[in-house]
Amino acid sequence: MKPGESLNGSSERILKIQYFIYFGVMGIFLPYFNLYCHHLGFTSFEIGSLSALRTAITIVFSIVWSIVADRYAWRKPIYVLFNFLSAAIWVFFLYINDFSGMVIVTIFHTIFFAPLIAFIEAFAMDELGGGGGDKNRYGRIRAWGSVSFILVVFSLGKVSDLFSINTIVPLILAGYTLQAIFSIPMPKAKAREEQFHAGVRELLNARTLTFLTCSFLMIFSHGTYYGFYSIYLEELGYGPFFIGSTWAVASIAEIVIMINSGRILKYITLENMIFFSCLAASARWCLLWRAVTVAEIMIAQLLHAFTYGTFHVASILYMDRLSTGETRTLGQATNNAVSYGLGMMAGFMLNGYLYETYGARLFLMSASVSLAGAVVFKILGR
After folding, report:
1. Rounded CA separation 227/232 (Å)
2. pLDDT digits over 341-379, tens only?
3. Same domain, 211 and 329
4. Measuring CA to CA, which residue among 233, 221, 380, 228 is closest to residue 294?
């Protein structure tokens, strides 16, 4: 498919496959890789250091590679090459069981894996916007990633019970290999070198800074939830099955809202969707601060539809609006680095330091942070 044409069935299928595989691999990596490291005998400090190292490298290199991709119109060649390099480097994890070796391989793997999700988002925006296309359809395509994530998380729970936790390493390798193969038919991106610098200047404005500040605060507010929600429920006396069920409810709510986001955007602007998503996050964290009953917890989890689902869709589309075609990859990479990189890292660090002292009261802090994000965006984002 050539740039400028509307999204056809072939391109849509490839994008769905890319999201499905990428987040399927994340469904293995995020819940289970640290557990794998724990079984290798790594200390909590070593495991935390590896996570921090991956985050720091991702923040830097997702932006570096996106600049190269947009500056020289190399998005597809870089994307295909880095998919194959990520798969090739991951092979070394099959043979490494010491911390120093893990650090070295993690560095090289993350350098090439870091920009891939930003590249996928940029591909999606290019193809959905071509030839008068409808970018509001993004949520329906992105939902395939969420479906994959939840399916893999639950399936792997059964697999890890039957087999060794060591099986996650070859499974991740299989996922990376599949993603590399299906990266080949991804559509080409077209940009002119002389337009890049003008696009960067257009991207660097007050509206972009305001949005990135809001995005940072919103994802920062999720630190308590992603870091300690399950621990908090266990402290309330709930068992693993119930805890897993609440995560499933949140994921299902996210999928439903993403599939229907195009319809919602016919009645609400992106700005209002971002604003109300931040307000929903504040309400959700307040509810979890006081929640003890099953009904209260489930209502809070249903709000994930807005705190992640609508916020993510609106953020991708809003950043695309702030970017020109020549800086589309850079725009998505910057958004990802500031929010899910810096924001999530800061949220984890602060909550990790404070949770033993303040416990569930940190949800109240999270509520104030997401509310601050809403206020910043509403007042300064005009």
Report:
1. 10
2. 899 889 888 888 888 888 889 999 999 999 999 999 999
3. yes
4. 233
Which residue type, as a one-letter code, is found at position 57? I
pLDDT score of 313 more than 50:
yes
| C-alpha count within 13 angstroms, C-beta hemisphere, residue 277 | 31
- Structural domain for 51, as ranges: 9-190
Q: Evaluate if residue 3 carries a pLDDT over 50.
A: no
Q: Assign 317 to helix, strand or coil.
A: helix
Q: Give the Cα separation of 176 and 153 in Å (integer).
A: 17
Please answer whether residues 25 and 179 qualify as being in contact, where contact means their C-beta atoms are separated by less than 8 angstroms. yes
CA trace torsion 267, 269, 274, 276 (10° rounding):
-50
In the structure encoding, which two tokens stand for residue 336, read together?
A: 């990802």
Tell whether 236 and 280 lie within a shared domain: yes
Cα–Cα distance between 121 and 329 in angstroms, integer?
8
pTM of the model: 0.85
CA dist 353 and 158 (Å) reads 33
Indicate the length of the chain as a whole number.
Answer: 382
CA–CA distances in Å: residue 171 to residues 86, 92, 162, 330: 14, 14, 14, 31
Our measurement of the distance from residue 38's CA atom to the centroid of its chain's CA atoms, rounded to an integer in Å, reads 24
Percentage of the chain exceeding pLDDT 90? 52
Contact 18, 25 (CB under 8 A): no
Segment 278-302 mean pLDDT: 95
Rounded to an integer, what distance in angstroms lies between the CA atom of residue 94 and that of residue 166? 9
Q: Which of 190, 209, 232 is the last residue in one of the domains?
A: 190
Among 172, 190, 208, give the residue marking a domain's end. Answer: 190
| pLDDT confidence bin for 132, thresholds 50/70/90 | low
- Dihedral over alpha carbons 297, 229, 155, 97 (to 10 degrees): -170
